[in-house]
Structure formats: structure tokens, C-alpha cells
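Escalation from tier 1.

The customer reports that the assembly of two entities below gives different C-alpha cells on two consecutive runs. Tier 1 could not reproduce it. I'm attaching the input and our single run for tier 2 to review.
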Amino acid sequence: MDELFTDLEKLAKVEKRVAMATLVGTRGTSPKREGAKMWVGEEGRILGSVTIGGCVDARVIADAEKALATSEPRLLQVDLDNEDAWEMGLSCAGSLDVLIEPFDLTSPNNMLIETYHAVRSAIEQGKTVAIVTPLKDGAQRLLLFEDENTDSDDELRKVAFELMRKRKSATVSIGDPPVEVFIEVHGPPPTLIIFGAGHLSMPLVNLAHDLGLKTIVVDGRPRFATRERFPEADELLIGIPSEIARTLSYNSSTFVVLTAHDYKYDLPVLKVVLPAGAAYVGLLGSKRRGKAIKAFLKEGGMEESLLDCLHVPTGLDIGADSAPEIALSILAEAVAIKSGRRGASLRERE
Amino acid sequence: MGVLYSEKLLDHFRRPRNYGALTDPDVSYESFNPLCGDRIRIEVKIENKSVKEVGFKGDGCAISIASASLLTEIILNTDPNKISNDQLIAALESDIKPARVQCALLPLEALRAGLKVYQDQEQH
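Tier 1 run:
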């Protein structure tokens, strides 16, 4: 989301008119997900990408120029069979739908900028937003906010709220006769909450920061949870960790990692975070230690299904040894779990 | 752990008594060990120099949590100034090594610091 605003602001300073190309549909494998954007300025400036490059981007640029010339939106469909993919230098075959819309950035009531300003404002308040764009009939965009009535019977709202919950953008068919709309979901950055401000947590915060995650570090020791040790952390919280844990919010975009390797923090914090609905809860420690921690929690009445959600030892098996390598292993597993993937090599994927 | 610690200590660690916060306590003080990270907050309501209500919250090792739990039981309906270090350590019924005495006395340190703040306020 930050990249989108940065690109838009950069272009607004130097271009009068731009075409916004949005990846609205993918079939087969695609290097980018729905919602990826490319901007083509009337003066020739290009920012972003809807693929990993090659001839598809070239076709998008060519169509963007046509859209700017005609002032009409276009839906570009690019079908790639294996031969094309090979010739185009793409790593995978599939087909893509790209919506290309021209905008006048000098217009006083610029709809594009107004829409994204409203989205940015909502995100700054911690809300998730969906922009609903009809693909064919040129109807106006609709903005939906996650704090609206999610029990609505309206089919569009139901689908949009489900996509907001999954933090996923997609093209869907709504109504009878069906109308295709692209639902573009934006929300606050995923959050990594780390309990324990020890040595490992330092590269964990740095790497998470580079991945665009908001980071919160919690510890009872002010000598460890310092700004000097965690210059990139968004929040440093010092106090009784389990008490702080109760004040934080958890959702499908929250990763929790316990790095203290000390039962005094692990047990009370796990009692709070395991039932709280985070996307990932990882605990630093051996299998043996994990078994003992789970046994203790089970004795305290925690349900087996919640204990099964605990990833201990935390991380993927990549032979991590140093603290930065362990941090990489943990975040790789967290991202894989959130995405519903196994975390195996891509070449093993069907 | 079972070999080193008494059943009483383990029981108070697993099922701490008086765990929780009080509404409008007269005394509320949090002490922590800056290196190991044990943190205990003791809260007390006082009437006629006697403890009428007491609670604690915290994340700590088995010794510090059990000690806090036992402390709340010992001082209830008594003058909280009168409990001694030895009395609290004895209540744990365990062989507390010198290096861990600090853990056992952390809750008492919080209580005494909190009482001092309360008594200073009462005098002014």
C-alpha cells in the first residue's frame, strides 16, 4: 500500500494524466497477485509492474497509451501458452486480465486521488477497505469499510467482507445476470508481535521491518527492550508480558513469536495469545520443551485444538544457525502459514 | 523441578491464590528483576492498618509466583508491615538457594515499596 501511494504522489508532481493498470485476474500461475499495479504517465514515466517484466508489461504500456489517447478504460486480456511464456521470458504460463484506466491528475475533484486518500485515511485508523470497481460498464467505484455492517445480506458486501477478512483482492461475478467486479482490498500492514527482547529478536525485527510488517516488542526488562537495540521496532512495550498481551489485538494478519525461551513468559503469554486468533503463533524451543509447555497448558484446561496451533520449534528447516538465519526461518514459516502453503521448495510445487 | 521444590510451592505456582487486580487499591506497586525479567505487582486495600483485600499480577518464575501467592495469603487481615523475609521464605517449604532468594523476596519488595508510598501519602 505504501508503494502505491508513493508512486501516485510521485506521478502527481510530474504528470498531468496517467493510466493506472491493475492486475484484476490471473489463471494458472502468475508471479504477481491480483491488485498489482503499474502506472504509465502521459509523458512516458512508468512505475510499478503487473508481472515480473518482459513482454506482458510492454503490452500493458502499449494499451495504457491507447487508453490515455482515447480517455476510455480498457480491459486487457493476455493469454500465455507455454510457448509464449518461454518466448516472453516468463517463468510460468497462465493468463492475465489487466484493467487499464486513464485519469486526469490535474482535475480538482480527481476521483482516483480522492478514492486513495480515503483508503489511506482508513488504513491509518487501522481499518481494512475494499474498492469495488465494475470491469465493464464503467460504473463508479464503491468503497466498503470493514467496520460497516458485516451481517448484510447484500451479495456484494458479503463477498467483499470475506475478501477483506482474507486480505485478498479478486475479481468476482455478482448478481443475475452476473456482473464482474474487481474487489481491491487494502489494509494496515501485518503485525509481528515478539515476546522477548533478547538477541534473536533484534534481527527478527529488522527482517520483519524490511518485509513491511509492523513490529511490536514486549518484555519485562527495560534494559533489553531499548530503542538502541531495536531502532526499527514500531512499538517497545515494557511491563508484565501477559498483561500487555491482553491489551493487543490479534487477527488473520498478526504473527506472534515468543523468543524469551523462558517458561515464566511463555506459559502466561500463550494462555492469552493461542485463543486470540492470530495467523501464526511460534515458540522458540526444542520439540521436547514444546511438548512440556503444551502438557502444562493442557493441564491448565487449554483445548487440544488450540495447542495444535502452536508452532514449536518455530521456523522452517533451513539449517538456520545464526540469529539472522533463525529470524529468516521463523518469518518464512509465518508467511507460509498465513498463505496456506507448506514452505517447501517452489520446484516441488505442482 | 519436583525434586527441588515442595508440593506447596508447586501448587501455589500452578494455582496462584488472589491472582488479579483490585478496584481502587490503596497500595499498588510493581517490582521487577532487571536481568531475569520477573515482574510482580502487588495491590492492597487497607483498613485500620490491616489488609482487607489483596491481589497480585505478574509473570515470573515458579518461586516468585508461589511467593507472591503465599504472601497474599499471609498478609490478609494482618498488619502488612510485620511480615519478615524469613517468614515468607519459610512458607515456601523449599530449599531456596542463595541465588534465588531474590526471586522469593521480589513480591515482598513490591509490597514494602508500595506501603512506603502509601504511608508517605497518608502522612502528608
